[in-house]
Specification:
The protein has about 400 residues and is an alpha+beta fold. The chain has 2 domains: about 1-220; about 230-370, GAF domain (Beta-Lactamase, 2-Layer Sandwich). It is built from 10 helices and 6 strands, in the order αααααααββαβαβββα. The protein has a 6-stranded antiparallel sheet, with helices on both faces. α6 (about 230-245) runs antiparallel to α7 (about 250-260) and α6 runs parallel beside α10. The N and C termini lie far apart (about 65 Å).
């Protein structure tokens, strides 16, 4: 009788542990999904604000340019400024990064400066001082717009990183719940077997198949425990620097900074042209690397081509004697224009924070490298290009 009571208690324990673990796993999984969706929504809103700021600058320059009809551009400038103010107010409640309050305050001040310059230019034009209005727009107006864009880009990078960390934390909790349930069930089955063996009328149970209990931390971030945490402020500064890059020389300097932030051995920037990817810029390697790489066909079976086709991040696991790699797509409103392939230290390729920062840098880099010339090797066609790169 006592044996049966113990068995009933163990069965109840199994049921309660399974139900509690399942409920916690569902909640953690939903939190991870919400973090991903919210991070994307905030990033999209800030990206639209960056584009709107550029449209404001274009409208202002248009209404002070000789020969342009003033009224349509004046109205467009006013409408776009209202849209920016409304978007800043709406996104404020969704921000999660530690310095979000200070960042949005800086953005508000920059937006107010752009608005004041717009009003002052319109007053000058109404008084016939078109030259003064143009000088105001093309000097102070351009600087104010650049400050606004830089602040938006830095906030976007910080927010995306924060949401990524929150998602990784929820996924870790999900794995911990699953591991806890597996451990509880294994201990319970061992106790049940011992009870059956010790009873006068032993309860014969089939021996359970061995079920290894996974270490949830190792599953979530294998081999990454010893990595030094990334400097998110430095990552945000890289994004801000990319927003100010105007030539290839400046881009190389920023990429050196990005390599330090990501603990990367080097970068290769690939741009798409037709049905092939072409290497246009490298950092951390010999200058002859671009000529040796050659193009990669769109349908090639490697991580670089796959990231370009799918528009999603791809990673190459580190080997016994090789580094890992992260391939982040460079996405624009027109689609994926290329990829940023990064060779990283062992464990970085699976580190959520490293992946998130690589995605942010690639997204910012997309708008910078789009105008760079693609260096092609005429001796190779996309169909015959080597597919071994990353």
């Amino acid at each position: 009788m006592r044996v049966r009571s113990r068995i009933r208690l163990l069965v109840a324990f199994f049921a309660i542990a399974g139900a509690a673990g399942g409920a916690f796993t569902v909640v953690a999984h939903r939190r991870a999904e919400i973090a991903l969706e919210s991070g994307r929504a905030v990033s999209d809103t800030l990206e639209r604000m960056v584009l709107t700021a550029a449209d404001v600058a274009a409208a202002q320059q248009a209404y002070v340019s000789p020969g342009q009809p003033d009224q349509p551009w004046l109205e467009r400038s006013a409408t776009l400024l209202r849209q920016l103010a409304d978007a800043a107010a709406a996104v404020r409640a969704q921000l999660r990064s530690p310095n979000a309050a200070a960042a949005i305050a800086d953005i508000d001040r920059a937006l107010q400066a752009v608005t004041k310059i717009d009003v002052a230019a319109q007053v000058d034009m109404s008084q016939g001082q078109n030259v003064l209005a143009a000088d105001l727009i093309f000097n102070e107006g351009r600087d104010a717009t650049a400050t606004l864009t830089t602040g938006l880009r830095a906030l976007q990078a910080a927010e995306l990183s924060g949401w990524t960390v929150e998602r990784a934390r929820a996924e870790l909790q999900e794995w911990l719940a699953l591991g806890g349930v597996a451990l509880a069930w294994t201990i319970g089955l061992l106790i049940l077997l011992r009870i059956g063996a010790a009873s006068d009328s032993p309860v014969i149970l089939p021996e359970p198949a061995p079920q290894p209990v996974a270490d949830p931390v190792a599953v979530a971030v294998p081999e990454a425990a010893g990595l030094q945490a990334l400097d998110l402020a430095a990552a945000a500064e890289v994004c801000a620097q990319l927003a100010r890059v105007s030539d290839a020389s400046g881009l190389r300097t920023v990429l050196e900074h990005a390599a330090t932030v990501l603990d990367a051995r080097g970068f290769v920037v690939w741009l798409g042209a037709g049905e092939a990817l072409f290497p246009v810029l490298a950092h951390g390697y010999d200058d002859r690397l671009l000529r040796r790489l050659g193009p990669i066909a769109r349908l090639a079976d490697n991580a670089t081509a796959d990231a370009w086709r799918s528009g999603e991040l791809r990673a190459v696991m580190a080997g016994a004697m090789t580094h890992g790699a992260i391939v982040a797509p460079m996405a624009t409103p027109a689609g994926c224009v290329g990829v940023l392939a990064t060779e990283v230290a062992r464990g970085r390729e699976i580190d959520p924070a490293t992946r998130a920062v690589a995605v942010m840098i690639a997204a910012q880099l997309a708008g910078v490298v789009a105008a760079l010339p693609v260096e092609r090797d005429a001796s190779q066609s996309p169909e015959t290009a080597a597919s071994g790169a990353l």
